[in-house]
Amino acid sequence: MYMLSEEHKLTVKVIREFVDQHVRPKARSIDKGEYPRQLLKLLGELNILVPTLPPDVGGAGADTLTQVLVVEELAKASPGLATIMEIQSSMLAENLYHNGNKVHREEVVPKLASGEAVGAFALSEPCCGSDAAAIQTRAERRGGEWVINGTKMWITSGLYADYYLVFARSGPAEARHRAITAFLLHRNSCIEATPIEVMGVRGTGTAEVRLNDCRAGDDDVVGEVNGGWKIAMWGINMGRLNVGAIGLGIAEEALREAYIYAQRRIAFGKAISEFQIIQHYLAEMYARTEALRSVVYTAAKMRDAGDSDFPLYAQVAKLLGSRTAVDVVRLALQIQGGYGYSTDSPLEMLYRDAKVTEIYEGTNEIILNTIYKFMREKFA
Ligand SMILES: Cc1cc2nc3c(=O)[nH]c(=O)nc-3n(C[C@H](O)[C@H](O)[C@H](O)COP(=O)(O)OP(=O)(O)OC[C@H]3O[C@@H](n4cnc5c(N)ncnc54)[C@H](O)[C@@H]3O)c2cc1C
């Protein structure tokens, strides 16, 4: 792949070995609900849990392309683990490193980067996911501190997190995104998490998280008071690129499984790969996967180059990544026939896991709205 340097190729080799040795054997137990905390620690030991951070806080000093390569490789075996990792790295650790205070940077970020601590990004609520500017969790000033009350919904790692990046309303509801503040809360008895059963990306500790009179000091504010929206978007833009990389990993894995199966499966006296329609399915899957790869890798390079179109490309990567994943797994599963529908086939899990990429980190309808908004500015 022409975009990859020798260093990137080495990273891919290392992470593939890691995935074969540690992730593939665990993928099904993660899918059955086991939260992979130990794997986060192992990724931390290799300095690739948050690869883009400098080495002094536990990263590898790597670029954004390295980040997406790690996410892509993890997603091939376990989209659930890739989801946990990308939230912990981009939406929490990297976000806190760039936008948090000295304590966040020096005390919390190294714990997140080593896997010693787990982090959760708590924006969505029962009232509002797409319309996140309407969140109802309140942060009120009482006696020189903040008191936070509300309920967060669908929070990945919510069951197990040591730190929650919580977004709360700190002004009038009419002010929408201009009156939201981000707080970093350490887990304590004011936080109650209950599990939510989900169709895919199981084992990610998805939870409803209730905040009951949680106290926070000014030092727990991330960024500026009423500046939480900026913190959320900083995380979400990178998160959307990561979802593109998850889609890429899922599509590659599904294509490989379907290709191998098509050579082996005999029908009407020959391998099904000899039927032209199967060849065309595989060719279509390949073309779409490679087109996606170009978009995801390009967006990663744009971020490091400081290209102002990065946020737009992050949306494009998320849209195409999720659609490609869903379409490619669907065709791959079709190629495997009855076997594909059985729980013996890895495609059954990937089919369930792929679907959520069209929903989380902004539904594809919201992504299309955002792309159109960027287009209006570009074409004005
Ligand atoms: C497994 C999983 C993990 C998640 N992890 C996290 C997490 O870690 N942190 C977090 O904060 N959130 C998380 N989420 C929440 C996720 O981001 C939301 O589910 C998502 O943003 C959609 O919000 P909603 O579910 O409230 O749907 P709604 O906003 O109610 O949307 C319902 C439907 O209406 C459509 N719609 C809404 N508004 C518009 C519009 N303006 N134009 C067109 N269509 C519209 C939507 O696209 C969707 O099809 C997770 C969700 C899942 C399923």
TrEMBL record:
Residues 120-214 form the Acyl-CoA oxidase/dehydrogenase middle domain. Coiled coil: none annotated. Residues 5-116 form the Acyl-CoA dehydrogenase/oxidase N-terminal domain. GO terms for molecular function: acyl-CoA dehydrogenase activity; flavin adenine dinucleotide binding. Transmembrane segments: none annotated. Its cofactor is FAD. Pfam families: Acyl-CoA_dh_1 (PF00441), Acyl-CoA_dh_M (PF02770), Acyl-CoA_dh_N (PF02771). InterPro entries: Acyl-CoA_Oxase/DH_mid-dom, Acyl-CoA_Oxase/DH_mid-dom_sf, AcylCo_DH-like_C, AcylCo_DH/oxidase_C, AcylCoA_DH/ox_N, AcylCoA_DH/ox_N_sf, AcylCoA_DH/oxidase_NM_dom_sf. The keyword Flavoprotein applies. It comes from the Archaea. The keyword Zinc does not apply. Keywords: FAD, Flavoprotein, Oxidoreductase. Residues 226-374 form the Acyl-CoA dehydrogenase/oxidase C-terminal domain. Belongs to the acyl-CoA dehydrogenase family. This is Acyl-CoA dehydrogenase. It comes from Pyrobaculum oguniense (strain DSM 13380 / JCM 10595 / TE7).
